[in-house]
Amino acid sequence: MLNTLTCYENIALALTIQRVNPKEIERRVLLIADKLEIRDILNKYPYQVSGGQKQRVASCRAIITNPKMVLADEPTGALDSKSARQLLENFEFLNKALNATILMVTHDAFTASYAHRILFIKDGKIFNELIKGNDTRKQFFEKIIDVQTLLGGDLNACF
Is the model's pTM score more than 0.85? Predict the structure, then answer.
């Protein structure tokens, strides 16, 4: 985030660069800010808000243009569970409704359970792959936990 811009201006920046009409910018910024519950901080500067609020502002800026791809490095790391769920649901909307690809790095099984495909990496190599298929999110979550258990243990003892 740019410290010289308000949270509103940080979110609006990408649309401003694309020369979107100011009224449309305002409509979209307010819509996404409402979804991630940060409307009350839009006039504040980054140094005036918490880490989790900064992360939500940055997430808003990343998704406001309805991108075809989002690169997310631990996007829920500084968020409480409600805020994390809201962000992940927005990612899910981008993926399903707008056909966007979400490439996310996370250590959190809950966050990973929103994915359709997971690659587990250990020591710089692909260790395992999971595909959600027809599993519920709960079933997929349990499979993720199983693989994480294997990742943390001695592989020679497992096989």
Answer: no
